[in-house]
Automatic annotation (TrEMBL):
Keywords: Membrane, Transmembrane, Transmembrane helix. It comes from the Bacteria. It holds the Pfam family DUF5368. InterPro entries: DUF5368 (IPR035308). This is DUF5368 domain-containing protein. The chain crosses the membrane at residues 20-39, 51-74, 86-107.
């Protein structure tokens, strides 16, 4: 790999996950991001109660993301070859944690919209 371009990264991810799964995950990420932006604009405020539950879900998202990548690549933790692999798995875990937090917050907000109470 001579150059790291967007096309190269897409080709690598398509090869790693398969074309259908990769584009399905990309579409799901766009859908959840759009719904999250809709919720933020609609509510004009963040609910700290919903945000707390979103944060509590983060470790589960991190573990699930790492397990998913290890399952898709047909490898295990014993196949970690060095520091770069650890950094890559930490990156996957971070993305999984943030992704599940956004998903949980958005799902809660769509299920139970923010209730504004009149000021006294």
């Amino acid at each position: 790999m001579q150059d790291m371009t967007l096309g190269t990264l897409i080709a690598v991810f398509e090869e790693m996950f398969g074309r259908g799964l990769f584009w399905g995950m990309a579409a799901a990420a766009l859908l959840v991001t759009g719904a999250y932006l809709y919720v933020l604009v609609r509510d004009r405020a963040m609910s700290m109660h919903k945000f707390l539950w979103a944060q509590i879900s983060m470790p589960f998202g991190a573990v699930a993301a790492v397990a998913f990548v290890l399952w898709i690549t047909r490898s295990g933790l014993r196949d970690i070859g060095g520091p770069v692999d650890v950094i890559a798995l930490l990156g996957v875990a971070a993305m999984g944690a943030v992704g599940i937090a956004i998903l949980v917050y958005t799902a809660q907000s769509l299920a139970r919209p923010l209730v504004r109470r009149p000021r006294a």
